[in-house]
From TrEMBL:
PANTHER family for the chain: SLL1037 PROTEIN
Pfam families: NMT1_3 (PF16868)
InterPro entries: TRAP_TAXI (IPR011852)
This protein's record includes keyword Signal: yes
Keywords, in A-Z order: Receptor, Signal
SUPFAM superfamilies: Periplasmic binding protein-like II
Residues in the signal sequence: 1-18
Protein name per its UniProtKB record: TRAP transporter solute receptor like protein
Highest taxon listed in the record's lineage: Bacteria
Organism phylogeny: Bacteria, Thermotogati, Deinococcota, Deinococci, Deinococcales
Length: 307
């Protein structure tokens, strides 16, 4: 953990948060007019967070009082939760740790995990590399063919992926330049116009938008010893991009809330928590549920539990 703290202190998180806070949400928030109506920050309407939120709603009648609020992802979700604009938020655990250990924000200590969820994989995209040969017959590869090629390059990221990019860059010693963009569309526009050399996105696979991509490669991400305190090994499977699996790393996500004490709200949250845990088999086996439920066991809590 000491190595984690040393790595995280190298990162200029505040700037990333300031840039991301201006992102537009993808859904209009629903005012919590009564104790029984709570807003939940998810992410993109085509993302894993939104899908899993809807899945719980199918099996738990307790979700009737929850209203989804779209966002740009984990970084914005934490701010929405801390600023009392939502009551629950889907977030990456590495972004929570970074907010606590980099920004030293005391409010983060009041955040609790209502549910530990799936692991989210780091997706690193690059354009196909080009191999050239000089007059002496020597070859040179241009672009990003392997992870080490990121050194000195520009990597686009948005939302919580901004923090992951900085953490991974510091922990691996590559210290590539992280370029903040508004969203996935902006990131790939920058990649295809060669304003950046790669795109880094943290999302639970299979991500709908990744399955529509073409003309890009997935670059393998190795798990260094320093990264093992936060990340775990994983593999990506996208036949539209690669015929074989691609090694990468993953970070666990959580459905977080504040440490509410009022009896009415506490009762609602604990009932929702209890229902989701009791319906895990349904979430894993019912047709139409997101495949990431196979990765959930509700046993590993990467953040203090709401009780």
């Amino acid at each position: 953990m000491r190595s984690l703290i040393l790595a995280l202190t190298l990162l200029p998180l505040g700037a990333a948060q300031a840039q991301t806070s201006t992102a537009q949400t993808s859904a209009t928030p629903t005012p919590a007019t009564t104790t029984g109506t709570l807003n939940v920050a998810t992410g993109s309407p085509t993302g894993t967070y939104s899908a899993m939120f809807k899945n719980i709603g199918r099996v738990c009648t307790q979700s009737a009082y929850l209203r989804e609020r779209g966002s740009s992802g984990s970084l914005e979700n934490i701010d929405l939760l801390l600023n009392n604009e939502v009551s629950l938020a889907f977030v990456q655990s590495d972004v929570l740790k970074a907010r606590q250990q980099i920004d030293k924000d005391p409010r983060v200590d009041g955040i609790k995990a209502l549910l530990p969820l799936h692991r989210e994989e780091l997706h690193l995209f690059a354009l196909p590399s080009v191999v050239s040969r000089n007059i002496l017959g020597q070859t040179k590869t241009q672009g990003v063919a392997k992870f080490e090629d990121l050194k000195g390059k520009k990597v686009a990221a948005w939302g919580g992926s901004l923090i992951t990019a900085r953490v991974v860059g510091a922990m691996t010693g590559l210290n590539f330049e992280v370029v903040s963009v508004k969203d996935q569309e902006s990131a790939f526009a920058a990649l295809r116009s060669r304003q950046v050399d790669a795109v880094l996105a943290v999302v639970g696979q299979p991500a709908t938008w990744v399955k529509t991509l073409s003309g890009v490669n997935l670059v393998a991400v190795p798990l260094s010893d320093r990264m093992k305190s936060i990340y775990s090994p994983a593999k990506l499977f996208y036949p539209n991009i690669s015929a074989a699996s691609v090694p990468t790393v993953a970070v666990q996500s959580v459905l977080a809330t504040r440490d509410f004490k009022t009896p009415e709200r506490k009762k609602l949250l604990l009932a929702y928590q209890k229902c989701a845990v009791s319906k895990l088999v349904n979430l894993q086996e019912d047709e139409g549920m997101h495949p990431k439920w196979q990765d959930v066991d509700f046993k590993t809590w990467p953040w203090p539990q709401y009780k």
